[in-house]
Amino acid sequence: MATANKTAAKQTPIKAGKTVEFGGMRFTKTKTVTVPVLKLMPDAPAYVRVDALMEVSKQVKPKNAGEKDMQPATIMHCTDLVADSECILIVGKMLQSVIEETYPNGTYVGKSFEIVNHGKRGDKAYNSYSLSEVELED
Known about the structure:
Layout: H1 2-10, E1 19-22, E2 25-28, E3 46-50, E4 55-56, E5 74-80, E6 85-91, H2 93-102, E7 112-120, E8 127-134
Antiparallel strand pairs: 1-2, 3-5, 3-7, 4-5, 5-6, 7-8
């Protein structure tokens, strides 16, 4: 049994509604309860399809007494196109601004993008991003 768990941990999570075979058994995922965060690595492209409108996450409580509450993040539910798995993308203010200006009224939902986080440039307090709309080819 321990071997099956180690092997299962290495597999990419499947999306709800998809069926997978593992260890001679077939499983269909019916509901995703927790979704991993897709971290944008510096200068590495991430390919995602946006599945829902951006939303503000829950308030994060401080780890230590006396610290201030962290501001809630803006998040976007996506599909990581490389791993073909559900994910949450934490959307920085600059990226949020570019997406909302370019795709007003939530028209970014259902579209696929290449997103590159270029980090902080010079003395800027925020990360800069490259955003490109992409099309999936069959």
